[in-house]
Amino acid sequence: MHRSGFVNIVGNPNVGKSTLMNALVGERLSIITSKAQTTRHRIMGIVNGEDFQIVYSDTPGVLKPTYRLQEQMLEFSRSALVDADILLYVTDVQDTPDKNAEFLDKVRKMCAATNNVQVFLIINKIDLTTQETLEQLVDYWHRELPEAQIFPVSAQERFGIDQLFAAIKEALPECPPFFDKDQLTDKPSRFFVNEIIREKILLNYDKEIPYSVEVEVETFQEEEKIIRIGAVIYVERDSQKGIIIGKAGTALKKVGTQARHDIEAFFGKQVYLQLFVKVDKDWRSSQARLRHYGYDIS
Asked: What value does the CA radius of gyration of the chain take, rounded to a whole number of Å?
């Protein structure tokens, strides 16, 4: 008997969805920062065993969109409600449960429906609260989603992850694998280079700058001992270009050094990375530009 299924991870921004995804997959596929809207795409991570295949899917945090990019990010989250065998709805001990009541109501209807989709309610970051508060949260979510199984975890500390993984594996439907058994993700190598560079920008710049940035790998040449990469950091305005580069190029050099180290760790090979900065005016609101950058704008 072989079990396979799609396990989709949804929830509000900053509740630890990407950290949970990486902990369950055992690989660092989703970038992680303390800032909201870190994840922009729907990212698959595939875990294979002799008799099972779990296809995890990390999604952007649920938010009220104010421009086209955020509309597509919300659509990624909504689509995760449609094709899941198991839905992991992630909250944490600091989350405001009714922040996105409309989306939560969709999850509530999934729980009540007889569509064979199982909903697991994940209370993350339990290392940051007391036992009394945790018990109150468990009681609250039992009332909100009575049909859901509740799992208190700390994805950062890996507490409760093994138990959650075992429950997911047990709940998978009988099915042959969807992907080759040696496949880790549905994304190409260039995608993870983009994400690593964007993560360093999120970590090194404040205010609106990280959210105005898109990264595109223009060249990716893999040789026996080295990978040569040329990537462009796109911003929306000339003033942002100057901030990204910094005085005498010091800010851009710092981002490049940090990104190169992580890219080398990801691929297990020496990397030569060149970064360029260009202006693509108001790309976040342009349907054509979003499509060019890989967002499935309908």
From this structure: 20
115, 86 in Cβ contact below 8 A? no
Mean pLDDT of the chain: 87
pTM (2 d.p.): 0.80
Amino acid at residue number 53: Q
For CA atoms 15, 19, 22, 25, give the dihedral sign: negative
What amino acid occupies position 44?
Answer: M
pLDDT digits (tens, 9 = 90+) for 66-89: 667 777 766 767 777 778 899 999
Average pLDDT over residues 45-65: 84
Neighbours of 220 (CB within 10 A): 14
Report how many helices (DSSP H) and strands (DSSP E) the chain contains, helices first: 9, 9
Q: What does the alpha-carbon distance between residue 38 and residue 30 come to, in Å, rounded to a whole number?
A: 9
**Other Cβ atoms closer than 10 A to 223:** 10
Q: How far apart are CA 296 and CA 75, in angstroms?
A: 9
Q: Crossing angle of helices 101-112/68-79, nearest 10°?
A: 20
Interval 233-284: pLDDT, tens: 999 999 999 999 999 999 999 999 999 999 999 899 999 999 999 999 989 8
State the alpha helices, DSSP H only, in 51-160: 68-79, 101-112, 131-144
* Residue linked to tokens 């509000």: 12
Task: Map tokens 């940090």 to a residue.
Answer: 258
Residue 243 burial by Cβ neighbours in a 10 Å radius (0-12, 13-18, 19+): middle
End-to-end CA distance of the chain: 39
Q: What distance in Å separates the CA atoms of residue 109 and residue 144, rounded to the nearest whole number?
A: 11
